[in-house]
Write a structure and sequence with these properties.
- The complex is a heterodimer of chains A (122) and B (405).
- Chain A is mainly β and 122 residues long.
- Chain A contains no helices and 11 strands.
- Chain B is an alpha/beta fold and 405 residues long.
- Helices cover 41% and strands 11% of the residues of chain B.
- The chains are: A mainly beta (122), B alpha/beta (405).
- The interface between A and B is medium-sized, with 22 and 27 residues.
Amino acid sequence: MTEILIGKAASFEDGGRRIVFHGDVEIGVFRWEGKFYAYENLCVHQGGPACEGLIMHQVEDVLAPDRTFIRQTFSESDVHFVCPWHGYEYRLTTGECVGDRRLKLRRYDVVERGGEVFIIAE
Amino acid sequence: MELPLSNHRRMSVDEFDTRITLSHAAKQARERGYANFPIIDVDSHHFESESFAEIVKYVEDPVIRQLLEASTIAGYRGVGALPASLGYQDYGGRIMREPLRRLERTEPKPHRDITLTRRWMDSIGIDIAILFPTPMLHLGLHPQVEIEVALSHAYNRWLVEHVLAQEPRIRTMLYLPFNDPAATYRMVKEFAGRPGAVGFMVTSNRYRPVHHNDYMKTYALLEESNLPIAFHGAYNWNDQSMLMVNRFISAHALGFVWYNLVHLTNWVINGLGERFPKLKVLWIESGLAWLPFIMQRLDNEYMMRTADAPALKRLPSDYIRDMYFTNQPMEKTGDMALLETTFRVIKAETQLLYSSDYPHWDFDLPSVIYDLPFLNETQKRAILGGNALRVFGMEPPKRKLAVRD
């Protein structure tokens, strides 16, 4: 078990992300709504840098009670990051692939201690 | 550059470099030993519209040249020289290399397209790339046939004389102005054998039947010249049928297969395989799943209606198996057994040619072939490079990539 120091929590902008290296492994660390999340920066599709893409909310279809289509909108809460190679989307808070929840990025625990942020790696 | 995000957020990006965005591809190349065998990319692209001012100088017709020159005035958007390619290939900016490409820095020489192409080729592990245009993939939809003829001729001259002449690792199959059969023939006559031109390409999204008698002498010339003809798929959201679909994914998924389905069907049923048995015919960027479909459809109906296709001496699928195909965008998310069956029925070991389609949004790395569990090393190497060397009569690349030395 290895703790990787990412930096001071206060230096980490909410909505921001950093890519850190642990040996050959790249890890994307996100801060979103005050919490930290970390995933391997390796898309399940073709190995792209999944954590380096845009952070986008889920697009949703809005239907009327009679099931007719009204419009589309962005979710207020379901946020994704998008692999910049091909567009595979991942839920920022879980690492699940949006198109197929059976597929997930490797997740790392993140701890805050004494105002500093650490990733727990093997 | 400010990229628009969801819910009124924005993201600021200051720089972009192809070699950095493809660093994971370079790692794949090292891990899989791509240095040990040639990899030929049979379908890749540049954005020729960014060099439009250079290309227009090669237009010979003075009136058309003046019209097109007017469209190159910086910041002036009043002129539409190319048919509109309605769509959202960049997935709302999520495919970041598309909007960020303009931030990538290159030296004044060689040509920017050469520098950018070398960067992704070296990162991915490509020895030789066959390069095609991007916006001009829609030029076959231009209502003015003379514009297609003039602009494609200018593009072909510019590409061969100004770009390919500087970099032998980059080749092309030259654009044929297929809406004008006589100009199509003249194009083959003029450019056959020019360095860098390894064949000719028809953009599939158009409304000319490939079996029309007007094309026979072009096919004969290509056959005599031992130069392949390729049909490059593309979508057209303005097609009467596609006007019924409301999302880009639908127009793209159907469109890139639709025109090639029509052209291939005409090619087979009209017996062009019998008339031009030595002509190499290549189908690009329709993926692979359409092939078992059309093989089964045509064989089944042919057995009940042989009089509709009297030129055939074999089953339709037998003619299809004589053709060549590129993989991208290979359907990888489904049942692996289906993909394995597809490889078997199209004789992928000899007929399938690797293509990346880089830098477009649905590109395939060589690993989509190399990592397939049902191929042995010999089959992988044939698909990734050996088949293309044979089909195009290319010499195996002597110079290994700089990153491999």
